[in-house]
Write a structure and sequence with these properties.
Layout: H1 20-28, E1 39-40, H2 52-62, H3 77-86, E2 98-101, H4 104-115, E3 121-126, H5 130-138, E4 142-147, H6 158-168, E5 172-176, H7 188-198, E6 204-208, E7 232-237, E8 250-253, H8 259-269, H9 275-287, H10 289-310, E9 317-322, E10 325-329, H11 337-348, E11 350-351, E12 353-354, E13 365-369, H12 375-391
Parallel strand pairs: 1-11, 3-4, 3-5, 5-6, 6-7
Antiparallel strand pairs: 2-8, 7-8, 9-10, 10-13, 12-13
Helix pairs in contact: 2-9, 3-9, 4-5, 4-8, 6-7, 10-12
Length: 394
């Protein structure tokens, strides 16, 4: 008789949902869209492959023996220096003010590990990026959701956040701008107003700026930079602008005062970010600026197409959009957001994510990640949506 083996499991994990994109796509796989086509807008993946010039560069790098080994724990010094040159808040920083990570999620997890103790309360604007909520729970932190207002496009309200800090006694806040899932770009003036208050209260703000290249005025107020290392952490990625999603390379800008403690976390979790991925990011930053701008222009064009299409909707409502995402209110009050998303998929072929994966209060919404399909496909998908909207009546 086989021995009875007890399953050992961290109790925290049983309280966390499985990754929602995989779970939802599995349910959707049982449905055959009436149109016969699938327009997958569930995940933020660039519609273009890694730039060919980066791939050509990596062919040469692959032959260099030193690239088979670890990089320095904090990351390639050349890449760290190049990030400083390109970043709007980093003019007065040194390479030791940041580390290279295996993507922005890893950077955010590192920042949370660095600054907070088990049981601390952290504010999370809702709708939120679900991986941040998952990370908070895994680290034994209490996620305090602050519901944002769809009437003003889910914009950041510094006064509202300050009220929530006073009410909850939270020790930190995670912001994403341009936002995932809503696409909204937070005003730098509101961020600065918030920092001026939180920095005097020993409160840490983590800003995920993965989509920063899609905001021309990202953190453009010079006063913001003085808070880096003094109540402000910045996490980012090269996944979207350089299409390096599979390479796993990002950064954490933290401030030199935390450098040694950040290295403790880095060395324990991954030792270093992937070496060849760092080479790809470095080359991309130095040589692919026009390629990136071309892709930004293409995505801006998709935003225009989406905005124009939404003017013909009577039952669906475009509440916010920007960078890679649109947050759309669906008309099915009697349905859960999952049921609404599956209905939309069946009728139009558009596969989106239910709003509820970004917060239980978001059941009336769907997230469209429109940057990962080509312009012609987006046009067809939106025509299907318009036709479905009209069938529903006024």
């Amino acid at each position: 008789m086989a021995p009875q083996i007890k399953k050992m499991l961290n109790n925290i994990l049983s309280q966390i949902e499985i990754p929602p994109i995989l779970a939802f796509k599995k349910k959707a796989s049982a449905i055959e869209p009436k149109q016969g086509f699938v327009f997958d807008m569930t995940q933020a993946v660039p519609s273009f492959p890694t730039f060919s010039k980066i791939i050509d560069h990596l062919r040469d790098e692959l032959l260099k023996p030193e690239n088979s080994f670890y990089s320095d724990v904090p990351g390639d010094i050349k890449l760290r220096s190049e990030i400083i040159k390109h970043h709007p808040c980093a003019k007065n920083l040194s390479p030791d003010d940041l580390i290279i990570t295996a993507g922005a999620n890893h950077a955010a997890y590192t920042a949370l590990t660095l600054h907070f103790n088990i049981g601390d309360k952290i504010l999370l604007p809702e709708p939120y990026y679900f991986n941040h909520d998952m990370a908070l729970k895994m680290l034994g932190l209490e996620s305090c959701h602050v519901k944002m207002d769809s009437a003003n496009g889910f914009q950041l309200d510094a006064d509202l956040m300050i009220e929530q800090f006073k009410k909850t006694k939270a020790k930190g806040l995670i912001l994403v701008t341009p936002n995932n899932p809503t696409g909204v770009i937070y005003k730098s003036s509101e961020i600065l107003k918030l920092l001026n208050w939180t920095s005097t209260k020993k409160i840490q703000i983590i800003i995920d700026e993965t989509y920063m290249r899609f905001d021309k005025e990202h953190l453009h107020l010079s006063e913001i930079s003085k808070f880096i290392g003094h109540g402000l952490s910045l996490v980012g990625s090269f996944s979207k602008t350089l299409s390096l999603t599979g390479y796993r390379v990002g950064y954490l800008i933290q401030g030199v005062n935390f450098f040694e403690n950040v290295l403790k976390i880095q060395d324990t979790m991954v030792i270093c970010a992937p070496t060849l991925a760092q080479k790809a990011a470095l080359f991309g930053l130095k040589e692919c600026d026009q390629d990136v701008q071309d892709q930004i222009d293409l995505i801006n064009e998709r935003q225009r197409i989406l905005s124009e299409s939404s003017k013909n909707w009577t039952r669906f409502k475009l509440c916010s959009f920007g960078a890679y995402f649109a947050f759309i209110q669906h008309p099915f009050e009697e349905l859960s957001s999952e049921e609404a998303a599956l209905k939309l998929f069946q009728e139009t072929g558009i596969l989106t994510l239910p709003g509820a994966v970004f917060g239980l209060g978001q059941s009336r919404f769907l997230r469209f990640a429109y940057a990962n399909i080509h312009k012609t496909e987006l046009g067809t998908a939106l025509k299907n949506l318009c036709d479905f909207d009209q069938l529903l009546g006024p």
